Amino acid sequence: LAAGPLRGVKALVTSGPTFEPIDPVRFIGNRSSGKQGHAIASALARLGAEVTLVTGPVRLTDPAGVTTVHVETAREMLGACLGRLPVDVAVCAAAVADWTVSNASKEKRKKEAGAPPPAIELAPNPDILATLSESGGARPHLVVGFAAETERVLEHAGAKLERKGCDWIVANDVSPATGTFGGDFNTVHLITRAGTEPWPRASKADVAERLAWRIVDALGGHKGE
Ligand code: PMT
């Protein structure tokens, strides 16, 4: 077993985008690189936690000392997460697609001369963060979400904390000028039931490290089931 203040603690981290297929060659995705979620998984592992990282498709190498599970869709991500319970702490940093394509085609859609473009129909995806927050007896002791917003960041993030039933939300401004999506830096607020803390702009590695130490404080003596 690893040494460190999180020794004996089981952690689950989601990271990256999800890809929702339109057909075997096309998908709906988003700009998440996985840098923030992967950095959180690494930071928790360095502090001694037994970490499972469930990641959507990213161009990053799997972090050292972490069990990494690769998935593509939101449904696969939910299944992989539920399969790891019980855990002590869950951090949902993935940018999960809110919708899946309900009329995805098994064969490549063909472009036919004169035919109108095909209609893509969407259906809601399950919410992984809300599901983990509600998981009854298997609910992680601490559930942390992220909120990616482009306007009224704190207001929308606070509403997500309530709606999804998690314990903390890390709110970040992802409007294009910030370069948060895909970049190496992040400017966040940590929203807990006790209040809202602005954190200074920092590298994603430093945000991860700070969050990991906050998790150490929050878990206190809580280790395992
Ligand atoms: O990957 P990077 O390039 O490093 O960028 C980091 C990041 C911007 C992706 C990350 O810091 C971040 O903000 N992740 C959450 C992105 C997001 O999708 O936020 P949201 O506001 O749509 O979702 C709120 C929370 O619910 C998140 O914890 C999300 O993981 C979770 N969620 C959302 C939808 C869904 N179906 N299931 C979920 O679990």
UniProtKB/TrEMBL annotation:
- The DNA/pantothenate metabolism flavoprotein C-terminal domain extends over 6-217
Residues where CTP binds: 98, 108, 126-129, 146, 160, 164
According to UniProt, the name of this protein is Coenzyme A biosynthesis bifunctional protein CoaBC
| Family the UniProt entry places it in | In the N-terminal section; belongs to the HFCD (homo-oligomeric flavin containing Cys decarboxylase) superfamily.
What keyword terms does UniProt attach to this protein? Answer: Decarboxylase, Flavoprotein, FMN, Ligase, Lyase, Magnesium, Metal-binding, Multifunctional enzyme
Gene behind the chain: coaBC
Q: What species is given as this protein's source?
A: Magnetospirillum aberrantis SpK
Region of the whole protein represented: 179 to 403 of 405
Keyword rRNA-binding recorded: no
Which molecular function GO terms apply here? Answer: FMN binding; metal ion binding; phosphopantothenate--cysteine ligase activity; phosphopantothenoylcysteine decarboxylase activity
The cofactor required is: Mg(2+); FMN
Q: What is its EC number?
A: 4.1.1.36, 6.3.2.5
